[in-house]
Design a protein that fits this description.
- With 583 residues, the chain is α+β, with helices and mostly antiparallel strands.
- Among the domains are: 80 residues, Penicillin-binding protein 2a (Domain 2); 315 residues, DD-peptidase/beta-lactamase superfamily (Beta-lactamase), CATH 3.40.710.10.
- Strands 1, 2, 3, 4, 7, 15 and 16 form a seven-stranded mixed β-sheet that branches. Strands 9-8-20-19-18 form a five-stranded antiparallel β-sheet, with helices on both faces. It has a two-stranded antiparallel sheet with strand order 5-6.
- A hairpin with a 4-residue loop joins strand 15 and strand 16.
- Helix 11 runs antiparallel to helix 21 and helix 13 packs across helix 19.
- The longest helix is centred in the N-terminal third of the chain and has 36 residues.
- The protein starts with 10 loop residues before the first helix and ends in a 7-residue tail after the last helix.
- The N terminus is likely disordered.
Length: 583
């Protein structure tokens, strides 16, 4: 009986069997991978909220800790930038009820560093099946270090990056704040909103989940910012000037109990904003506590007002520049004019008589004289000049929600509409439009571009200096000098009967008082808008100041309510910037 010989495997069969084994292993690996992926998808997407509540939240916390955003800096004359908006590190404190043995001891120790509600703490500490319960938030690093040293079992700390505003309510209408608009975390209002593409970082406001991104279209719901140039901002706003303006506004509002008060200080040569603020205001560190969200809006950019008599110098400059009048021109002031049934009168109803110099129109703020100027100029030419001054158009300032104004009366075919516009009635414009137009009077006749950002410092180390475009020449340099002389005369002889003349500094200025418009039309008899503008040194001005307030109580005219804060700012600027005398 012979032995059966084992059949040898051919090379081809050997390869096929090896390939079969490899396929089996691959299928098994793919099966395991699929199980892992599907399980991960189930946990991280379908049951995300459930497991998040059970876990120690380290992934979500990591995302919050990686929250990043560019800084906003205020300028300072010594060159050192001061933070206006920055990131700070704070912590949430959490407990694990499953490992805490002595609740009373844990509470007593923790409560000695952070104030805790005892009933709430014990309710959370008693959830024996819950490994994570937050008991405190916004805790500083120093406090956390002290608690860590106690080594309390079952206590953990989660680091957060948080947006902070060191100046609190100073300048908050300009800076805005970072918040969640329901879609993403980003800049809300002010600079935070306007420059959101520069300040934002890729991780801002998003908890990125790999599996959610892999299996869903969640990426389409996230605002992409991959191509942005990320950086920090250095503002034209000087921290000390901003603080001084804020202080002056607070005092003014308190003294006169006005509804709103605001101010802008600008370099009339470049349009650089040195300070801007308005009241009522808010603390952006606590914006969630604000009940009236209208305070978030910046009325200096978005509010439109009939400015009253501070518009008269623009009418005068236009007439001078067009050659319709000269500095020696006189007119007959009758005290009132009847314009097709609409009576225009001087503030006191008094006539100044024949041969009244046009200088008196500004000295005494005469409406009848302003009507004369518009007549000499002609309604069409008058409207053209006002539009050249930027009245009724956006300034292009780098802040959001700028209003254009209500200036259709400039295009009216009825002369009375032009006449009243000449003294700031019947047209409503923004404070930023106003200061821009008034700067033309003193800077040689150029319409500048207001801006609040001086430099952008990009993450790659490059810097971009914001250079204002060359402005449009509105009136000649000679006309600018003429109207400046007239406004210096107002200060030296008429304002407080010359008591506000400064011996060593020339100041060009004018006040304005306007009846406030009723919501349904017409004017209040007892509510006024007060305004005050001025620039100095008058013939080569470095600073222009604009102040206004609505419905001040206890005084009818702006000269009574805004002269003091104006000169307070003038004296501060002279001292702070060491402005040399010009006379």
């Amino acid at each position: 009986m012979g032995i059966k010989k084992k059949q040898e495997t051919t090379p081809t069969e050997h390869v096929e069997r090896s390939a079969y084994r490899i396929r089996i292993v691959m299928y098994f690996v793919l099966f395991l991978a699929s199980v892992v992926i599907l399980r991960a998808f189930y946990i991280q997407v379908i049951k995300h909220n459930y497991y998040t509540s059970l876990a120690d939240r380290q992934y979500v916390s990591s995302a919050r800790a990686s929250f990043d955003r560019g800084n906003i800096f205020l300028s300072h004359r010594n060159g050192d930038p001061i933070p206006a908006a920055q990131l700070i590190t704070e912590y949430r404190i959490a407990i694990d009820p499953t490992v805490i043995v002595d609740k009373e001891a844990a509470y007593n120790t923790l409560n000695s560093y952070v104030t805790l509600d005892k009933e709430e703490f014990f309710a959370k500490a008693s959830k024996i099946n819950d490994p994570y319960e937050e008991i405190a938030k916004d805790v500083g690093e120093d406090t956390v270090a002290l608690i860590r040293a106690k080594k309390i079992k079952g206590v953990s700390f989660v680091k957060d990056s948080k947006r902070a505003y060191p100046q609190n309510d100073i300048g908050s209408k300009v800076f805005g704040f970072v918040g969640n608009n329901g879609v993403r975390v980003g800049g809300q209002y002010g600079i935070e909103k306007y420059y959101d593409d520069v300040l934002s970082r890729d991780s801002l406001g998003h908890t990125i989940n790999f599996f959610a991104e892999l299996f869903t279209d969640v990426e389409k719901t996230i605002i992409s910012n991959q191509n942005q140039e990320e950086g920090d901002l250095v503002l034209t706003i000087d921290v000390e000037v901003e603080r001084a303006l804020h202080s002056a506004l607070v005092e003014t509002k308190k003294q006169w109990n006005s509804d709103t008060v605001g101010g802008i200080i600008m370099d009339p040569q470049t349009g650089a904003i040195l300070a801007m603020d308005g009241l009522p205001s808010f603390n952006p560190n606590k914006y969630g506590e604000v009940k009236d969200q209208s305070v978030f809006s910046n009325q200096l950019i978005s509010g439109v007002y009939e400015m009253g008599s501070i518009i008269k110098p623009i009418t005068m400059a236009s007439a001078l520049d067009a050659g319709a009048v000269n500095e020696q021109t006189t007119y007959n002031d009758t005290g009132f004019r009847d314009l097709n049934g609409y009576k225009v009168k001087n503030f006191d109803g008094k006539a100044r008589g024949p041969n009244t110099p046009i200088q008196t129109i500004l000295d005494k703020s005469l409406n009848v004289g302003t009507v004369f100027l518009v007549e000499q100029l002609g309604a069409k030419k008058f409207a053209e000049y006002f539009k050249e001054f930027g009245i009724g158009e956006d300034t292009g300032i780098d802040l959001p929600s700028e209003a254009s104004g209500l200036t259709k009366n400039l295009d009216s075919k009825v002369f009375v509409d032009s006449a009243t516009a000449g003294f700031g009635q019947g047209i409503a414009i923004t404070p930023i439009q106003t200061i821009r137009a008034l700067a033309v009077l003193g800077n040689g006749g150029v319409l500048v571009n207001p801006h609040v950002v001086d430099t952008i410092i990009y993450k790659n180390g490059e810097t971009k200096k914001v250079v204002a475009n060359n402005g449009t020449q509105v009136i000649t340099k000679e006309s600018s000098e003429k109207i400046s002389r007239m406004l210096v005369h107002v200060v030296d002889t008429a304002l407080a009967n010359g008591a506000r003349k400064m011996d060593h500094y020339s100041v060009a200025a004018k006040t304005g008082t306007a009846q406030m418009v009723k919501p349904g039309g017409g004017y209040y008899d007892d509510r006024y808008l007060h305004s005050f503008f001025g620039y100095f040194p008058a013939y080569e001005p470095k600073y222009i100041i604009f102040l206004f307030q609505t419905y001040p109580k206890g005084a009818e005219y702006a000269s009574a309510t805004l002269t003091e804060p104006f000169y307070k700012m003038v004296k501060f600027l002279i001292s702070y910037y060491e402005v040399p005398p010009d006379r």
